[in-house]
Each structure stands twice: as structure tokens, then as C-alpha cells.
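Supplementary Methods. Inverse-folding protocol.

Structures were first reduced to a C-alpha cell string of length 340. This string, shown here, constituted the complete conditioning input.
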């Protein structure tokens, strides 16, 4: 093909439009990916609405990409071949020279390259990405399922596997929406005694289907922290809900040396006092997404254990509608553009 289509936004907060462009050639160290599917993440709003610095319009969002290598640039090494199935996530490349990169901690690169911000993302029929951003998709994992794993999946999977929890420990997942429904599945598959925390008694059956051993209704008369302590206290709380108030309510439910891992974003501060942490030796940390290898590990584990995101698909032409549905909170639970 000589042209390809993208769904782009011409100005901050503007509508999506389908535009044809000339097919680009990958430069040195780059590949062109034929996009099969692209997840729509709430973080895309940061670029569409120009909430972050240096957003350049028109913007083509999309950092949950699944597709096939269509062309290799020079110097991409021997690891990749045309036709390989690959994913590109929030980690879209790193600078390689900042202190975090020199320490091997690429996901907190000071010059992190995020698709849809540093370069055109996956709301498109093709994508140019650094070869170092690629994760291999295992056989048997459809593109529409693999795409959300490149951000939502790796964030929850990595948040748990890099936590202090070990098999048999009590682990609570706060929220069972776009991130949390994956977090519960991963926690159960990793061998944790899994607690799902959400609003309303009616979600208990759904939480059980996801693999939770216990369910805590955060709207019940018993405070969340008391409910967790009644179960023995949580070694880890994976906070996926984008609510500082809800996150704060879990802290006193942590066991001694318990860990609060925050992956749900909110602009409001957490209401935690030092005394809540000091006497029991508790810790609080934020967890970013994961490197390309982390994404690949997530995909392999998901394929092995049969873990899948709950998705709704729309064609590329419906990017605007899919984006609005994601923003409204009506998606159950990840919107995915089925590009091909």
C-alpha cells in the first residue's frame, strides 16, 4: 500500500478525523508495524487534551498496540523478522543515557518515548516504532486481547510480581474495572489469597468469577480497613481505582510490613499520616508500567494461564466514539480498535 489511515486529533480536545497519509519508511533501528488492534487507554486523554508538555498536533494516540512487523529498518539486529507478531505499549523506547537507563531501569527513563506523545501511536493502520520497544506476542493470543496487555496488563502484572507478596499471602485489589479486572486474575494466578474490593454488593459474583477468594464491598457499614484486618491484614494492596479517598481507606488494612502499590492515577493527595506507616513498617509506592521485556513476560504469562481482558471492539472509523465511551466510564472494560 502507498497510503495508510490514521485517526488523529488536530487540536487540543478536538474531534477525531480519519486521514490518509503516505506510508512511512522505518529509519535506522526502527520497524514499521502493521497495526491489527489498538487499545484505548484513559492515559490517551493526556495527549488528546494536551495535559502534558510538548504535545504536538495533530496527535495520533495509542500506546496499546498489537500488530505484525511489516518492514525493518537498518540496524534492527537479528531478533526480528518481517511477519513477527509484536506489541508496543506505554514503553515506546528509552534514551539509553540518563541515570535510570544506565542502571537498567528503562521504564522510568527521564526521556521516555511514549507512543502518541513522542511519535504517532496506534490509532492507525501502521506505526513506526523503535525495535527496542517491541514485545513478542505468543501464539494463541489474539491481537485484540494482546493490545490492552501492553499497558493495562503489564501495569497490573508487574505491579504484583515486583511487590513484596509471595504465594499464599493475602493480596487485595482495589477496583475491578479496566485495570482491576486484570489485577484480580493475575493475583489469583500467582497464588495469592486474593481479595477484590469494589463498590456494591452486586459485584461479588463477578469478582469470584475473576478468581477472587474474598470480596469487600467498600460501601458496606464495615470500613474497608476493618474488613481486611478481619482477614488477617493484606500483605499488598494493589490500588487500581483512580480515587485517592478509596486508596487511603485501605492503608490501615495492611499487615505489618504491608505494601500499598498505587497504579490508579488521581490528582488529589492521599490522606495518609506518617504514624499509619511508621509503627507497622508499612510502605507506599507508585508503580509505572513496564519495559518491552515486561510486556513480553505479561503476554506469555497471560497466554499460559488463560488470562484475558474483557474488551469491546470498534473499527478504526469509530475511534472517536470508542474514545468517548472510554472517557464516560461505560466501557466494559477495555475499548479496542480492531484495525484489521
Amino acid at each position: 500500500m502507498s497510503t495508510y489511515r490514521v485517526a488523529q486529533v488536530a487540536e487540543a480536545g478536538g474531534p477525531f478525523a480519519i486521514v490518509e497519509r503516505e506510508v512511512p519508511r522505518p529509519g535506522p533501528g526502527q520497524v514499521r508495524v502493521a497495526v491489527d488492534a489498538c487499545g484505548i487507554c484513559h492515559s490517551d486523554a493526556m495527549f488528546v487534551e494536551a495535559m502534558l508538555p510538548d504535545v504536538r498536533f495533530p496527535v495520533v494516540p495509542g500506546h496499546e498496540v498489537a500488530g505484525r512487523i511489516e518492514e525493518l529498518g537498518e540496524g534492527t539486529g537479528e531478533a526480528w523478522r518481517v511477519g513477527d507478531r509484536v506489541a508496543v505499549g506505554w514503553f515506546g523506547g528509552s534514551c539509553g543515557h540518563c541515570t535510570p537507563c544506565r542502571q537498567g531501569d528503562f521504564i522510568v527513563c527521564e526521556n521516555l518515548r511514549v507512543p502518541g506523545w513522542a511519535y504517532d501511536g496506534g490509532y492507525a493502520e501502521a506505526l513506526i516504532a523503535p525495535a527496542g520497544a517491541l514485545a513478542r506476542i505468543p501464539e494463541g493470543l489474539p491481537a485484540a486481547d494482546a493490545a490492552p496487555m501492553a499497558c493495562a496488563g503489564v501495569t497490573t502484572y508487574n505491579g504484583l510480581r515486583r511487590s513484596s507478596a509471595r504465594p499464599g499471602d493475602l493480596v487485595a485489589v482495589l477496583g475491578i474495572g479496566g485495570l482491576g479486572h486484570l489485577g484480580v486474575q493475575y493475583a489469583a494466578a500467582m497464588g495469592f489469597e486474593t481479595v477484590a474490593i469494589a463498590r456494591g454488593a452486586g459485584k461479588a459474583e463477578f469478582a469470584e468469577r475473576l478468581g477472587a477468594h474474598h470480596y469487600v464491598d467498600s460501601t458496606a457499614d464495615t470500613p474497608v480497613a476493618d474488613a481486611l484486618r478481619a482477614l488477617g491484614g493484606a500483605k499488598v494492596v494493589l490500588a487500581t481505582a483512580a480515587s485517592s479517598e478509596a486508596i487511603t481507606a485501605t492503608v490501615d488494612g495492611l499487615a505489618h510490613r504491608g505494601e500499598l502499590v498505587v497504579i490508579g492515577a488521581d490528582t488529589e493527595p492521599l490522606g495518609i499520616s506518617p504514624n499509619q506507616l511508621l509503627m507497622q513498617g508499612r510502605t507506599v509506592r507508585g508503580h509505572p508500567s513496564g519495559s518491552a521485556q515486561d510486556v513480553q513476560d505479561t503476554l506469555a504469562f497471560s497466554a499460559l494461564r488463560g488470562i484475558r481482558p474483557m474488551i469491546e471492539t470498534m473499527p478504526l472509523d469509530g475511534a472517536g466514539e470508542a474514545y468517548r465511551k472510554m472517557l464516560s466510564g461505560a466501557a466494559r472494560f477495555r475499548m479496542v480498535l480492531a484495525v484489521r
